[in-house]
Each structure stands twice: as C-alpha cells, then as structure tokens.
Write a structure and sequence with these properties.
Chains A, B: It is a multi-pass membrane protein. Two copies of one chain form a homodimer. With 419 residues, chain A is mainly α. In chain A, 79% of the residues lie in helices and 0% in strands. In chain A, helix 2 packs antiparallel against helix 4 and helix 9 packs antiparallel against helix 11. The longest helix of chain A is centred in the C-terminal third of the chain and has 36 residues. At the A-B interface, helix 1, helix 2, helix 4, helix 6 and helix 7 of A face helix 1, helix 2, helix 4, helix 6 and helix 7 of B.
Chain lengths: 419, 419
Amino acid sequence: MDIGFERREKTRTILVELSKKVKKIGEDDPRRIAHSFKVGLALTLVSVFYYVTPLFDGFGVSSMWAVLTVVVIMEYTVGGTLSKGLNRAIATLVGGALGVAAHQIAVLCGEKAEPILLGLFVFTLAAAATFSRFIPEIKARYDYGVTIFIMTFSLVTVSSYRVDELMQLALQRVSTIVVGVATCLCTSIFVFPVWAGEDLHKLVAADLEKLANFLEGLSTDYFAEKAEVENLESKSFLQVYISVLNSKPTEDSLMSLARWEPGHGRFWFRHPWKQYLRIGALSRQCASSMDALATYITTYPKLKPGTDPDLHLKIRKMCQEMSSESAKALKELSSSIRAMIVPSSASRLASTVVASVGKLEDVLSEDKAMSDVLHLATIASLLTQLVVRAREIAGSVEELARLAHFKRFDPIHEVRVKP
Amino acid sequence: MDIGFERREKTRTILVELSKKVKKIGEDDPRRIAHSFKVGLALTLVSVFYYVTPLFDGFGVSSMWAVLTVVVIMEYTVGGTLSKGLNRAIATLVGGALGVAAHQIAVLCGEKAEPILLGLFVFTLAAAATFSRFIPEIKARYDYGVTIFIMTFSLVTVSSYRVDELMQLALQRVSTIVVGVATCLCTSIFVFPVWAGEDLHKLVAADLEKLANFLEGLSTDYFAEKAEVENLESKSFLQVYISVLNSKPTEDSLMSLARWEPGHGRFWFRHPWKQYLRIGALSRQCASSMDALATYITTYPKLKPGTDPDLHLKIRKMCQEMSSESAKALKELSSSIRAMIVPSSASRLASTVVASVGKLEDVLSEDKAMSDVLHLATIASLLTQLVVRAREIAGSVEELARLAHFKRFDPIHEVRVKP
C-alpha cells in the first residue's frame, strides 16, 4: 500500500513539474500556442480533400501529398514556411520533369536495359545532388530543396517502371503539393504571422540594451564612490552580457529566413538584413571585452585608494564617466533601432567617449616611470587570467580521462617500442 | 560577335571557379565524396523493390515509402542516420496505432459524425504535438520523430475515411519503412562510417592545440627578447583562436548525434560525451581571454624598456615563461585526448604555471605605490578597449539607419504629441 502511495506521489510531482514547464513555455511566448493551433488548422483544411467526395474523386489518393506537405513545411516563422514551401514546390517540379525525361530515355533502350538504366540514373543524380549539399551556399538556402529533388526524381523514375499513367500521376501530385504549400502560406501569413525579420530586428536591439545594462551597472555599482564591491558575484549586471556571447546561431538562422520574407509592416522587401549580422558580430566582440573585464574585477574586486588617493579618485571618476556615457549611447542606439529612427546623438556621445579615453591615457602617462611598466603589467595581468583559464581546461581533461577510462601511459613499453 | 565572346569567357570563368570550389570541398574531407556515393547506393538498393516482380507484388505501391525513407533519413554521420531512423520507425508505429484507434472510435459514432470527429482528432493531436516541439528536451532529441508522428497519425486517420483495408495498408507501409531504415543503417555503419563521436573527440583536441599555438606564438614572437613587434597583425598566431570562439553550435550538434551511436573503436556506448562540451566551453572562455589580450597587444604593440629596464626584463621573461609553459601543457592535453592516454605531466605543468603567476604578482606588488594604481589602471585599459568596441557598434547602427532608410527624429512633432 505504502509503495503504491509513494509511486503515485512521485508521478504527481513529475506531472506537476511538467505542467509548470509547459505553462511557462506558453507564457514566455504566446505565439507558440498560436503556432500550434495554426498547424492544426492547416491540417484540418487540407484534409477536407478526403472528406468531400467531388474533391477526392478529382485528386484520389494523391490527396495524401497535401497532408504530407503541410506537416513537413509548416514552420514557426513566415520565412521558414516560405523557404520550405518554395523549395518543395520548385524541387518537385524540376525533379518530376527530370524523372519523366529519364523514364523516356530508359524506355527507348529496350525492356531489359530499362531497370539497369533507371538504377544508374538514380544512383548518379542522387550522389551528385547529395554532394552539392556540401557547398555552403546551397546548404544555407536550398538544403531542403535538394532533398525534395532527390526524393521526387527517385520516386518518379523508379515508379515509372510500374505505373502506366505517369503523367497523370505526376500532375495530380504536383497540384496537391501546390495546394498544401498554398494552405500553409495563407495560414502562416494571415493568421497571427511570426516574422523572422522582426524577431531579428528585436533581438539585435535587445542585445544592445543588455550591453548598455552592463556598462550602467559598472558605473553605478562598481566605479561610483559609495559602491560596495564586496558581493560582486551577486550583482546581476555581471551576467547580463553572457547571452549576447552565444547569439550567433540564432541570428544566423533568423537572417537566412528573413531573406525569404516579403515586405511587411515597416520592413521593405530588400531590407538590409545583413547589416544586423554585422551589428551582432560587433556586439559579441564588445561582450567578449566585457567578459575579460568582468572576470578581472571579480577576481580582484578591491579598489584601494593606495598611496596616491588623488590620482586614484581621478581615474575612478573617469572610468565611471566613460561607462555611464557609453551605456547611454548604447541605450539610445537600441531604442533608435526599435523605433527605426536615425540615432541623433549617438555620434555626439561617441565623441564624448573618445575624449574621455584620451583624458584617461593622458592621466596614466603623466608619471613616465609608471606609464612604461603599466603597459607591460596590463599585458601580464591579461595573460594571468588566460593562464588560469587554461588550468581549468587541464582539470576538465583529467576528468574526461577518468570518466572515459583513458589508458595510463606506460614508459617501459614506450622505451621498448623505440629503436 | 564580341559580346558573345565576352559572355562565353564569363561563363567559363564561373564554371572554372565552381569546379575549383567543388574540388576543394572534396579534397578538404574525402568522406564527403564517400557519403554521396553511399546515398546513391542505398537508394539503388531500395529501388530493387520496384524492379523485382515478386518483391513488388508483396509490397505494391507502398515500396515508395522505402525510397522516401532513404532519401529523408540518410545523414552524414552514423548518429544522424540512427537518430532519424529510430525516430521515424518508432513515430510511425505510434502514430499509425493511434490513427487506427481514432478511426475505430470515429466509426462507432456513425457515418455523419465520422468526418467531424476525424477532423477534431487531427486538429487536437497536431496542435498538441506541435506545441511539444517547443519543449527543449523534445526539440533536441525527438524533433524529427514528432513531425513523423503528426504525419503518420494524420495520414492514417484521414485516409481511413476512404481506404477499406486500413490494417493491410498500415502493415505494408510500416514494413517498407523498416526496410528503408535498415538499408540506411547498414550503408551508414558498414560502408566507410562517419562517427559523430569521433569527430567531436578530434574537434575538441584540435581546439586545444589551436589555443596552444596562440600561447606558443606569444612566447616566441612577442615576449622573446629579439621578437619584432612591428608587424603583429601579419602574425598567424593572432588569428588562430578565432575559430575556437565559434565552435559551440558544431560541438552541440555533434554531441547530440554522438549520444545515439553504438560503441565503436575506442569509444564505448556510454562514453562521457557531455564532458567534451565542458572542455569545449572552457576552451571558448580561454579563447575569449586570448581575444582580450590579442586586441590589447595589437592596439599597443610597443614594449619599451622604459625607466626601469631590469623590472621590465623581469616581467617580460616571466610572461614568456608562463605562455610557453601553458602552451606545452595544452599541447600535451591535446595529444593525450587524441591518444586517449591519461595526461601524465599536465598537472605538474599546471603547478609550474601557478608558481609563475604567483612570482609575477610578487614582482608587481614590490613597489607599493605602483601596485595600487596598477590594478585600477588595468581595469581602465580593459574598459577603454570595451568602449572603443562600443563605438564601432554606433558606426554600424548608423550604417543600418542609412541602408534601411530610418526616419529622422522630428523634435517639433514630438513636442506637439506630448500633452
């Protein structure tokens, strides 16, 4: 009895956890719920082909291909659905036409040679098309199309050996696939559309804001005179840039989908999506500098006034100014992207920053003796951080050796092997 | 005539370029050529179902599903083919069984209610399954399976309205899909197999070696007494860590495929693949430190002996020692992973590194006045780099504003809108 109770309790906890998780996923982005219903809707729409007798009589079992197409090409974003839909439609046409041509050639060569020739065609074209998928440009835009091309060509070529009314079958299939693609596109574009381009636009702006938050936190929680530097690890600003560091794959995929999307809202058809990737790359570089700084100040958090409190205060104030001014500039850039308005004062702010960088360099080079060592010392401390990280790698590799049961190196054996 | 000649020349150049590119892709990794032939082979093997009459009589038009399966699940790595193959086989079984059950329920409710009930089932299950794809764990391992589940369930449920011998059709399809999966698996595993796990293993080792090359270059080309620091940008070691920074997506996908692979060669079934991701993450952190250092030394390359040449030489020598020792340690770790041998001297080397870091800190803190400013000055110079990068972002956003025709901000309008 007790065991049964325990088990039920356990199952209940798991179910409660799962439902919390599912709820959170839906709440984080309600468009996900809308997307799920859209897939259901599109599928129900194409299955009408089966339920309505006159329609079914027209298309027959080929109606299946409409259902299949909807399941496979319905993607979360409009760009995703468009790219898959166009790839599928065009690849089916090309593959089908080539398949029919291959069939005609094979028939000309006599009954015995036919299966051999058909096999040879399929082998050659499948191998060549598969190899073409390794070309980066094709991989990025037409990967799905090549798969569908191989599939259609093989299906048409191979079935041509058994099916008599090849052309009729091919036409039926192409038209049902077109119906499937059209259904998906309409549902995708007209029912709560999710635009990849818009997501990319928002992502880039949000990343700039994160960078600004780091710099703002730095100026108020670290460089400010009364800032407590004791519990630095608990400050949220020291973690805020991390998600920016890993944004490359998301940005790349959104950009490749955005290119397929038609103009919508404030975005024209030839919107400069590539420029977002450039801003993204620079943001990541900036985040990587933040990482270096954040690691340094969490390792050595103390800011002691030392023997020259005036110089100390001067540098500290300049650092505060630099970070708060840069934070303002980045915030403005972020909101100017969001509103699609030319950034008005960003260049002014940028020049302020340049001025304070210059001032700082002047202050640091006033004392000649210090300035010379300073440079090398900065390099040394950067190197130290690097080396400490390299040590962590060593620990991690040792852990791997333990987990994967690496062999121990046997020096006696080694000596024997050598001549 | 001239225009025709020019055009022909242009086409020739394009073709020559393309053939060079294709040749390079093949030469970079000859396994790609093997993979293309493997796809052709697997397709030719399953099309035998069409050519041999007794086989075709057994499976009928369902043979099509074997061809379709091969095209869709044949992936570059064994893990990829296995994961897609198992996903497809299991999802087809589950989706098919549920589809038959849905059909039975719908039939019980009478002829008029049947299409409505069938439509309702398809809508609900498709929406629920689509939503489950947003759960990260399902997305990572079973994304393809869920697609196939929706497809099979919809096809079986919807066709059940028109097809009479549902069970026979379902069995034929399942068996042809199993034949397709089996063909792919055999070709994948027994003909020049490409193991995702092995690729991950080699990638992690190669990345460690790249980090080592950076440190080695630093010690011989920058910290060495006679090193020329004039043409730093041309040195290759300053670029070597960049590919490590972007290795996360490749490592993640290889790891998720490696988990599906059976034991092979020196890798057992439960090889600790996750540990490779940990090493990879630490390598990227280390590369990010390298980025900070590389940016700093290319911005301020000069190493002047200054007013205290002894101290200068001391620090420089220590830096050289630190980087060359760390390079040796990383090289050894890399080759110990490659040979799968416990890293023998890595921990010894690591402790040498710790010692020299300590020595360096001692030297720098000897002069009390300098040591205090030094710390703040390091922070200031890191911040300066960061701010310079933030400025580059500003330039890039302005470029976007120009390319995308952002509106100019109109202050008069703004004043009017505000109450």
